[in-house]
Amino acid sequence: MRTARSLTAFSLPFLLVLTACGTSASDQPTAEQSAAAEGFPVTVTDARGEVTLETAPRRIVSLSPSLTEILFEVGAGDQVVAVDEYSNHPPEAPTTDLSGFTPNVEAIADYEPDLVVLSDDGSDITEQLEKLAIPVLLLPAAQTVDDTYAQMELLGEATGNAEEGAAAAEELRGRLDALVAGIGEDAAGLSYYHEIDAQLYSVTSDTFIGQVYGLFGLVNIADEAEDAAGGYPQLSAEFIVDQDPDLIFVSYPGGAQDVLGRPAFDSLTAVREGNVIEVDPDTSSRWGPRIVDFAEDVAEAVEAARAE
Amino acid sequence: MTGAALRTGLRTGIRVGTGRRAVPGPLWLGVGLAALLGATVLGVSAGAASLTPAEIVRELLSHLPFLGVESTLNERQRAVLVQLRMPRVVLGALVGGLLAGAGAAYQGVFRNPLADPYLLGAASGAGLGATLVIVYGGAAPAGLPLVPVAAFAGALLGVMAAYLLGRAAGRGGTAPLLLAGVAVSSFLTAVQTFVQQSRIDELQRVYTWMLGGLGYGGWEDLRLVAPYAAVSLAVLLGSGFLLDLLALGDEKATSLGVRPATVRLVVISAASLATASAVAVSGLIGFVGIVVPHLVRRLVGPDHRRILPVSLLFGGAFLVVADIAARTLVAPAELPLGVVTAFVGAPFFVLVLHATRSRAG
Q1: A274-298: string of b/e by CB count within 10 Å (b at 16+)?
Q2: Which residue of B lies nearest to A264 if distances are taken between CA atoms?
Q3: Is the peptide bond before B141 cis (omega within 30 degrees of 0)?
Q4: Cβ pair A263:B219 closer than 8 A
Q5: Does the distance separating the beta carbons of A7 and B332 come in below 8 Å?
Q6: What is the ipTM of this complex?
Q7: Which superfamily does CATH assign the domain made up of B26-360 to?
Q8: Could you report the per-residue pLDDT of A201-255, keeping only the tens digit for each?
Q9: What is the pTM of this model?
Q10: CB A231 within 8 Å of CB A252
Q11: Domains defined for chain A, CATH in brackets
């Protein structure tokens, strides 16, 4: 049950621009064999530019756990034939041993995909796939919650589920808003430290996960390390103890235990008052629909801390 | 370091070179001790947490009887100082000393200034051990330091493999051993990379370990390696004379009643134990083990009875200072210590080479 969080950590910030579709720049509308799924051809804009899909994809391969979750959320699950080794959710996702980290173009082509979605083009896999005339959508890690909504809408459109995509995004937005409203002023002034591994790597508020905490108005102690390591600084233990955060979130298995057994950490308020919270490594590192599960964990922790 | 001191060092070196046996150079031992002491004081005063020197002094004095000094630190600040910062400084001094001492010994055994503690597969072996545990070990049970133990074992096994291979490949001399070290290193590195690539979610942990750092294991890390460090350092300090004999060449050493192969085995074992101890608690920190002994040799001359102890002190001081940079330059974040040692050390080394050459010329 591990995640591809290091991928997120290493990926550079991208700005995802989503533009309107429909204005067909296509020049070969010979789509007579297609069952004419409504609205196709569709043009969407991924991280590299416009991509036109002539017909609704029937054999999608996803190389990103977050995108897999989004595809299933927007109702395109039936069209997905293979997902990468780390895509473990939802349970019905057809997990394979495909790697999104060191992708192998022949292994992907074996699934005869008519669309490949991925969030990391580290080894120029998009170019290789396009040489085989396989359409590719490159959707990098979301930087903000808005990026998640946008990717949900985009993948909805690209797979012929535009309405469901928009509805899923709307529902997610509504649930997050309700959570934040439920907490209200309770989180104001509370500080937190989010630890992604035992070597004290943390996240700043510039990261996607930092923004989720930010929705609640929590104050991130890692923000003093700005510009360090692209939002994922390795903090000094001295600094963490000195800051004495109100809440400590750890997002790896066994993390809470590790924090409790660490030298000097027993003097921390969060440790003494039981405010060290182990969050699900998957929901807290992916930018898919389950960020709301993660947000619920955070809201619960805030309420518990305030109740004391 | 003043020009006068450098000149003195060179004079001392020349004296040894002309054959006069000398006790370990008291001057450079003194300088080394002072450097280590100064680095320690600096190391304890500097850090990401906001403690003033005055507060630290009061805290330390408050532990002495009869002075009646009251500490002004709160419990958390005291924990930062005593449980985090102080053990890290001590660990830095120990690791630096171990690496520099091991490097000096390897350079002596191989009679090659380019030898370093990682020459015979210690680094790649430790890297493989640590990677295996990180990738396949799952969440470590509390209280069982899997990574240090695996790195320690890996380093020793790596060197052992290189040694046996070198023995099997050729008789006498050090060339077969060196080549076996190269072969074992490449092989183990290849396996390590393969294992590492199989689990990308642990990539960051592996990399962080590789880049080296003293971390915040507290006194526990020190307790872990202290016995091995003590044994290896004792043997290394006692082997100076034997290395001096070895420096005369295998034939001459044999005629003086020393068996070169046995000396090499003993010294390599001790140096490898020192390296393994250091690697277990600090990952792969480069540069210290090659540059410090090299620098010390230029200062105190070719006598290993001087080079070894002075290297220990300078190595410790150097690493403590480098770690201050790692802890404070980007505070409250940290830099990998291996990056700092190379970044600071390399230009410094070039300067020293240049300075000593022009003085000598």
Answers
A1: ebbbbbbbbbbbbbbbbbbebbbbb
A2: B79
A3: no
A4: yes
A5: no
A6: 0.80
A7: ABC transporter involved in vitamin B12 uptake, BtuC (1.10.3470.10)
A8: 999 998 999 999 999 999 999 998 866 567 889 999 999 999 999 999 999 888 8
A9: 0.82
A10: no
A11: 5-172 (3.40.50.1980), 188-307 (3.40.50.1980)
